[in-house]
Amino acid sequence: MTATSRPVIGVFDSGVGGLTVLRELLRQVPQADYLYFGDTARLPYGSKSVETVAKYAISAAEFLVKQGAQHLVIACNTATALAFDRIASAVRVPALGVIEPGAEIASTASKTRKAVVIATEGTCNSHAYQKALAARGIEAREKPCPLFVPLVEEGWIEHEVTERVAHIYLDEIFAGEFADADALVLGCTHYPLLKPLLRRVVPERVTIVDSAEATANAMAQRLGALDPSGEPSVKFFATDSVEKFRKAGEKFMGWKITDVAHVDIES
Ligand code: DGL
Fold first, then answer.
1. Which of 80, 145, 204, 233 has the most CB atoms within 10 Å of its CB?
2. pTM score
3. Which of 22, 57, 76, 119 is catalytic?
4. Inter-axis angle of helices 19-28 and 211-223, to 10 degrees?
5. Is 188 an annotated catalytic residue?
6. Around Cβ 130, how many Cβ atoms within 10 Å?
7. How far is the CA of 3 from the centre of ligand 1 (A)?
8. Vertex 19, ends 207 and 73: CA angle to 5°?
9. Is the pLDDT of residue 166 over 70?
10. What does the pLDDT look like over 111-151, one tens digit per residue?
11. Chain centroid to CA 35
């Protein structure tokens, strides 16, 4: 049976990085309308404490629900890793994070049952991916790659400096006990944009697992058959400058962002 009304999905991230998840959602679930919240005034989350990330993420989730979100996607890996349960129990709509879907796809892809996870400092320190993968019989090595976020935001997606940095981070990872690891989990919103570059850096046998793609796929499964008529609408909210969000966001989406509203979450 096909649902008749379009669901409203709220997507939350610390900034523009979560647009990689929104982009995938629009591709895989175009039968929904979207509200996207980028907490640009308070980013980065990747280097902040559990308490701070939980507080910020809960206020953003509550805001999206007030705006009419019927489902919540926590696109931020750090917020999912550090505070998924707290965010999910603070709102009365179903929440989906990026870690379980990413771990599930890695589990399908890995034959050697060994994976490497790259993410922010906060996500790695929480070991959320390691735990989700261990629950699926996969041993994981986690590697924080904090420089990737500013490099992507600078637009250095195909750049010799980024490639050099990737080699420094990753060359020694697929070695020793993990020489036979066959999956690389992209555990941060920004990393999917580096997929072509990372493809050249990691061994050929390694499958690159994109948590953004996996999460959109999980949402498509969750929602089931939807009314295929109509076009998706997207409304954006940012806690810092609307103009800055628009400019940075366009690099991620590849199209013009128009409908951005400023939100003062503290008030
Ligand atoms: N969105 C964050 C994540 O996926 C990366 C940027 C930040 O540190 O806020 O972990």
1. 80
2. 0.95
3. 76
4. 40
5. yes
6. 18
7. 33
8. 85
9. yes
10. 999 999 999 999 999 999 999 999 999 999 999 999 999 99
11. 15
Q: What is the pLDDT of residue 5?
A: 83
Whether the predicted pLDDT of 267 surpasses 90: no
The two tokens of residue 77 are 């890996």
Answer whether 8-97+215-262 and 99-212 agree in fold.
yes
**Which two three-digit tokens encode residue 53?**
């990330």
- Domain 99-212 CATH (choose: 3.40.50.1000, 3.40.50.1860, 3.10.50.40, 3.30.70.920): 3.40.50.1860
Q: Does domain 8-97+215-262 have CATH number 1.10.760.10?
A: no
Q: Which residues line ligand 1 (CB under 6 A)?
A: 13-15, 17, 43-46, 76-78, 120, 123, 149, 188-189
Which of 48, 189, 194, 245 maximizes ligand 1 atoms within 8 Å of its Cβ, making it the mutation to test the pocket? 189
